[in-house]
Design brief:
- The protein is of the alpha+beta class.
- The protein contains 16 helices and 18 strands.
- Helix 10 runs antiparallel to helix 11 and helix 11 packs across helix 15.
- It is globular, with a radius of gyration of 22 Å.
């Protein structure tokens, strides 16, 4: 069993707590029920179109201050004003490339996200949009802070803020006033915000819609993976995420959006298992030493920043899987990536992903569904028998791993023996996902491919 302890990386007056995975004793004593803001754990309001969850916690506007020839990010204002002190590291995540900003390289127009994990394991998502400050040529960042992982929803909100930013700051704040009273729309539903149009002087309604899929895929664009990785590379990264290894994905500072997107995509592929270890889609330079952590992590970092720890990485005895998006190559690896999955599973994934890739179109939601269903059905073959091994532990329904693991399909047993050592499976067994949710996705997957004998054979 593995449990979380806080690890702090400090630099430039910033500190962030990250979950570090360390071995401890009996799992039932040491594993706290993890509170995740997933759809199945949110309080549903009957058949209403909203959930009893604030639309967002707050929005911060981050700018750059010139201090002795070096740009330092700071919070220009927050809306609404925070009730407690803001985490000092927050501006760094909004401008992870602050030391690379120049007149010719501002990153204006970029959209990206990050995740902060506190000492209790609770995650906060930050969704960023970089625009040009109205009173200078420097960039500024609008960042929405929420416990909900839903980039598509908040991306639409950021697009509206970018539009209002070109009008006036008063227009932005007026729109935010209408937003803070709203709750998160349920999947497939929408909210309406009434705002004053500062150009016409008339009130107008702004509709913001949330995609149907629910919590699982709303914050990613899985089609991104196939723009930068080959199918076999995706499979090797997927297997490494499944086994909770040290995983680093890097790119140049010109590609912030694609870097944070690809890292976030990788964390979703093992659903219904969730990545429980260090997770930083975009690592600021001031915290670059996080890549030297001896415990499992999934981190995105800028290639230029890694030069600071290049010598340390070369001397490390602990292996790490490092993929560079710019070159499309693995920089370092464990050496066994091609054999992590059973041959039958690997061939199945390669064939199914090839077909999904061939059918990719312009619809992001459909692309997400097509790609995710390939991995979902694989995960169902690995974990789907959990319902036969539920037990009651102090009034809480859990999976009995002592009977669940040996009952795995024979060809998947060697893989399950490795997965059994992960924190993700331990958390899954205790914080069991809503069976209706799992069954719904399985049904959708089987219906989608019911007419294709190829899929019936490969997933049998």
């Amino acid at each position: 069993m593995k449990s979380k302890l806080p690890l702090q990386f400090k630099g430039s007056n910033a500190a962030v707590s990250l979950p570090v995975v360390l071995p401890r004793g009996d799992s039932r004593k040491n594993l706290r029920r993890t509170e995740r803001p997933t759809l199945s754990r949110m309080k549903k309001l009957g058949k209403k179109d909203v959930l009893d969850v604030p639309f967002f916690d707050r929005l911060i506007v981050v700018r750059l201050r010139d201090e002795v020839g070096q740009f330092v990010p700071y919070i220009h204002y927050s809306y609404p004003e925070p009730e407690m002190e803001t985490q000092p590291a927050l501006p760094l995540f909004c401008f992870p490339d602050s030391d690379k900003i120049t007149e010719d390289n501002t990153g204006i127009g970029s959209s990206y996200s990050f995740v902060l994990t506190d000492v209790t394991g609770e995650r906060q998502h930050g969704y960023c949009k970089r625009v040009r400050a109205r009173d200078s040529s420097q960039p500024q960042v609008y960042c929405i802070i929420s416990k909900l992982g839903c980039f598509s929803l908040y991306g639409r909100l950021l697009t509206k803020l970018e539009e209002l930013h070109s009008v006036s700051e008063a227009a932005v704040k007026g729109f935010l006033t209408g937003c803070v009273s709203q709750c998160v729309p349920a999947p497939g539903s929408k909210i309406t915000v009434t705002q004053l149009n500062h150009l016409t002087g008339q009130f107008e309604n702004v509709v913001i819609e949330r995609p149907m899929d629910g919590q699982r895929l709303e914050h990613v664009q899985l089609g991104y993976l196939f723009q930068f990785l080959q199918i076999d590379q995706v499979i090797q990264l997927f297997a490494s995420v499944l086994l909770e290894r040290r995983i680093l994905i890097s790119s140049s500072h010109h590609h912030l959006s694609k870097l944070s997107s690809c890292v976030s995509c990788m964390a979703t592929l093992t659903y219904p298992l969730h990545w429980e270890c260090i997770f930083i889609p975009m690592l600021p330079r001031q915290m670059i030493h996080a890549v030297l952590a001896p415990t499992p992590f999934l981190i995105g970092a800028l290639t230029e920043d890694l030069k600071e720890v290049e010598r340390d990485l070369a001397q490390e005895e602990e292996p790490m899987l490092h993929f560079n998006l710019d070159s499309g190559q693995f920089i370092s690896c464990y050496g066994d990536e091609e054999s992590l999955l059973p041959t039958k599973s690997r061939d199945m994934l390669r064939s199914a992903l090839g077909q999904a890739f061939h059918n990719l179109g312009q619809d992001v939601d459909q692309n997400n569904l097509a790609i995710s269903q390939v991995f979902l059905l694989f995960m169902y073959k690995l974990l789907g028998h959990y319902k036969q091994h539920l037990t009651d532990y102090h009034g809480h329904r859990e999976v009995d791993l002592t009977s669940f693991i040996p009952a795995t399909r024979r060809y998947l047993r060697p893989l399950m023996d490795k997965v059994s050592e992960t924190q993700a499976l331990s958390v899954f067994s205790i914080n069991i996902c809503d069976p209706r949710e799992f069954e719904q996705f399985k049904t959708l997957t089987e219906e989608r491919h019911a007419s294709q004998s190829h899929w019936r054979r490969t997933f049998s």
